Structures are given as C-alpha cells and as structure tokens.
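Quiz preparation item.
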C-alpha cells in the first residue's frame, strides 16, 4: 500500500494542485497545461460555445499523477473538475473506481485544500499546541 493512500486534486483550466495525504503528512504536485490558456470570446450567430476544449494531455498528466492513490477527491471551480473525472472514467476505468467525490470549490489556499480533504476522508487533523509550547514539553501544574 502506498504511504499516501488518499489524494485530493484542485483543478481549473490553468493548473492542477494534487495533494497525496497520509499519516506521515502530505506531498504536493502542481501541474500546468502545456498550452497557455486561451481566452475565447463567443460572438452572436456563430457556431460553438466559445469555450476551450479540454486539454487531453494535461488531463492525462493529472491522471498519471493520481495513479497510486487509493481514494481520490476532485474539487475545483467551473467545468475542469468534471472534465477530469470524465477523462479518468474514459481512459483509466480502474482509477475511476477510486474517485469518491467530485465537488465544487472556489480558489482555496493549499492549507484549506488539505484541511478540506482531511475532513472529507476523516483523517486526523494536526493537534494545535498552545502558543509558546514546544513539542514534548510538559507543563508544571
């Protein structure tokens, strides 16, 4: 079993922040699409939605980075999270079975992503020490 069984990925069309979580801590990988994000503008009376097509190479890289996770939580704004889940279902059906949820999340900080995932996976949150207390220090009382 890998040392980091759980993974959370926050994804939008410009980046994917992947955190592998375990009892020994967490590791982060940030991936970016190869092509710069294009801003498309939809004009009236033209065919097409005005949205960029999903970057298959980018989604494949994210899928590869999640390959050893036992359980996967996918979060993010807009459509990128569902595009990733669809890509995994189409190209990595064994990995797709490990997706436990796909949920909306705006633009959280790295710490907020990790805390959200720990609550979701019911992992222990770090203990908060009183200010000034060093690890292993005993208080006289």
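Solution:
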């Amino acid at each position: 079993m890998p040392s980091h069984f759980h993974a959370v990925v926050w994804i939008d069309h410009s980046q994917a922040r992947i955190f592998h979580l375990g009892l020994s801590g967490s590791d982060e990988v940030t991936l970016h699409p190869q092509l710069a994000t294009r801003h498309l503008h939809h004009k009236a009376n033209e065919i097409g939605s005005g949205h960029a097509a999903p970057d298959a190479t980018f989604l494949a890289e994210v899928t590869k980075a999640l390959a050893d996770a036992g359980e996967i939580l996918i979060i993010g704004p807009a459509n990128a999270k569902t595009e990733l889940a669809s890509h995994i279902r189409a190209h990595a059906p064994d990995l797709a079975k490990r997706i436990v949820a796909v949920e909306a999340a705006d633009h959280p900080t790295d710490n907020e992503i990790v805390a959200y995932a720990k609550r979701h996976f019911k992992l222990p949150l770090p203990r908060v020490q009183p200010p000034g207390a060093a690890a292993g220090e005993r208080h006289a009382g």
